[in-house]
Amino acid sequence: MELIFSLIVNGLMLGSLYAMVSVGLTLIFGITKVINFAHGEFMMIGMMLTYIITTYLGIHPYLTLVFIVPLLFVLGILVQKYLIEPLRNSDEHVQIFATVGLSIAMINLVLMIAGSDNFNTPSSGMRHTLDLGLATVLTGQVVIMLCSIFMVGGLHLFLTRTQMGRAIRATAQNRNAAQLMGINVSRINMVTFGIGIACVGIAAVLLSPLYPVNAQTGQSFVLIAFVIVVMGGLGSITGAFFAALIIGLVDSFTGFYLGSSLKGVAVFGIFLMILIFRPSGLFGKARKLAHVS
Amino acid sequence: MNDKTISSTPARNHGGGMRWLFNKKILFFATLASLIIIPIGVGDDYIYHIFITICLFAGLSTAWNIVGGYAGQLSLGHAIYYGIGAYTGMLMLNSGVSPWISMFVGAILAAGVAVAISYPCFKLHGPFYALASIAFLEVFHVISLNWVGLTGGANGVMVPLEMGWSTMIFTERLPSLVIVFGLMSFSLAVAWVIRRSKLGFQLIATRERESAARGAAIRTVHVRLYAAAISAGLTAMLGTFHGSYLTYIEPESAFNLTFSIQIVLFALVGGLGTVFGPLYGTILLVPITELARGWLGSSAIGLHGFVYGVVLILVVLFMPDGIMSLIQRYLPSSRVRRLDASVENSVDHVPLDDINKPTRPPIGEVVLKVEHLDKHFGGLHVTNDLSFDLHKGEVLGIIGPNGAGKTTVFNMISGFLRADSGSVAVLGEDGHFISPKTPGAFARSGVGRTFQIVQPFAAMTVEENIMVGAFYRFRSVEECRKAAREIASELGLNRFLDEEARNLPIGGLKRLEVARVMAMRPRILLLDEVMAGINPADLREAIELIKVIRNSGISIIAIEHVMQAVMELSDRVIVISSGEILAQGKPEEVVKNEAVIEAYLGKEASDASNE
């Protein structure tokens, strides 16, 4: 019983971490309809910067948020403006390879500069264990859990309650109609991409005290993030949150019962099942058969 | 996207075309020859290695292009098949079987895996197919890591260094180069043959517009599975070779995502969907990065990846059609000449003689029986107990307000939608009624349809579009081409023959839609608003055209809003409103029917017309 409880707690902690990484990805897809294959690399860059700033300035890793989040926001805007936007009317494969190319370039740029070593950001008290009675967690994990809830809630409020949020949703629903209503769609896309990347920046900072970073770190997280985004229904932020918790639990249980090396098979097996049988996601309505006309 | 130069006819009829063919052939064969001659000439092991790498990737890229380019399924998991080939070769070599044999075992194995993977995924498009292929790659990666008994896990597999042709392991590099060159040439030959064969056209048609391809009796799932199997088989053969060349293989390098992406990258840089693009792309990129790695040594970790990433970004931004588009532009092309020739040879005209001949056959027996069709979309009852017949040689007009369910009826009598209940029976050529279920089955039973929203195969030329329609009637591509030209000239599309369909104006697209379906020689023709949105002059022409078709004995059902056409063409009109038949009869009777006026214009209008 104690074991089950501790696996559940661990799964939820892991899940909220995955949620933080995934919300930006699903937001970007929902609005710009582009799958950002370089999403994980932005996180990796964020973690690298957190490491550099904390070790050189000796400040608490969380303080780097004030620098890293705006920086990644701007980076996101630039990527949207100079890479994604010009390809808006191109074939699908061209859009895919644009972000794939960006991802490869970023990974290898970091490899050239920093090599393939692991970098450990100082834990700064975030690795203290908290005893919950039946299970133990790290302080950093609790922070991530709370922040992921705030992040999902905040994004939800932003999208439903603010004028900008409404404009973003209108763009997602119908780009041309939104444009006719006077919404500057390119600007909306830039802001969305920026917010999406800023979200993964927050995730990067909060993760840094708990996980070492190397050039490949983004890859391992982004594959899971894809699983979550598809599972939650592409573009759905709350869907992604719950999908992330589910994947966290699957990860935790299969990791324990099948061993950490085989848990990938379980996660990707689920992913393929969903892609094939419920491409609209676990929570989305089944897609209507688009009838030919 | 498609390889226009290959699909053009041999230019032997035109003296000037010869020069073009010559140039392109020279470029190609000179390139091939240089892949062998340069390394032999230089004689350096490192140069050999670079050229072996070029041949390997050119072969892999060409193989990938069959499924990724022709069929448009962006697999990022092709390393799966490479890995299968490599492991099969290594493991069988360890049990004493020569790679020359295991190469084919691996190919068959990989083809099987490709079919098993592609079959459930054929519904997925673009990024989703790419994601699924990455997930499959991950699964294979993890399995190969954990199935230690078979693969040796993370330690990988080694083979004893027994040199010789039977083991494909050599001290010198030349034999390896010869083998991989042969395999690459084989890949190129296969890709070339496919591109010129029916399969190639069917793949591209499916990629461009799946519903229209199904309407043209293409087995869209089958053709993509063939492509996946062939592509995987070729990839595995190269994998087997590479295993022997490296003499060592492990999961990390065999089932590697970056490796997969590299394969795709070369095809993209060269020109996706072209036959020779992947070869040129590889030749351009591999030497740059290999040489850079040679010069900078181990300090260059990440360099070639960085270069690839940047090149990929630059290519998608500035040259999305790849190097082949440049070759196309700067090598003289026969296309212009052919256009002139075709304009000279045949003047566009609708054969008016036929119209003036009073040859219309009498209306014959029932050829299509629609009985009690019912269809719901959610709570909406789109089709309610709909029954009607179509007779041979008859033109049946279907009219009705927007949203009445007309197109839904069409979708059900052409197999695109399955009715909730009711039946559709088509008179087969043998005189028995059959009930086809799929669009392909309908097409084969002689029902051809057009789409309300035109569905051209955008990247194919007009000629190729029409050819796709003729495919199920003819064995050879040349016969299809001939039939396509005849139909194009009948429909006045001659001057557009070599134009890509995407460049046609809407009137031309509508005609193309009719031409493609006519190429199938249907006995029953379903026309979905072919008159909508064309100008009065074209309308006149279109009406005459349909008369010609009718007079040839084809039965027609036409959904139409243009009343002039409905009145002039229809022998009988069915009015559908809210999924039910409101009225039917001769056109002049139907338009006077009160219920019809009410459905179209409202109650007041119907009252007004009574006064």
In total, the number of strands of chain A is 2
CATH level 3 topology of the largest domain in chain B: ABC transporter involved in vitamin B12 uptake, BtuC
- Count of β-strands of chain B: 12
The separation of the N and C termini of chain A measures: 57 Å
On the 0 to 100 scale, the average pLDDT of chain B is 83
Helical fraction of chain A equals over 70%
Largest sheet, strands/sense/barrel of chain A: 2 strands, antiparallel
As an assembly, this protein is: heterodimer
- Interface with most residues: A-B, 50 and 61 residues
Summed over residues and divided by their number, the pLDDT of chain A gives a mean of 87
Spatial separation of the terminal alpha carbons of chain B: 62 Å
CATH architecture of the largest domain in chain B: Orthogonal Bundle
Specify Rg of chain B, calculated over alpha carbons. Answer: 29 Å
Spatial order of strands in the largest sheet of chain A: 1-2
Low-confidence stretches of chain B: 1-17, 333-356
Rg calculated over all Cα atoms of chain A = 19 Å
Which strands sit side by side, in order, in the main sheet of chain B? Answer: 8-9-10-5-11-12
CATH C-level category of the largest domain in chain B: Mainly Alpha
In total, the number of domains of chain B comes to 2
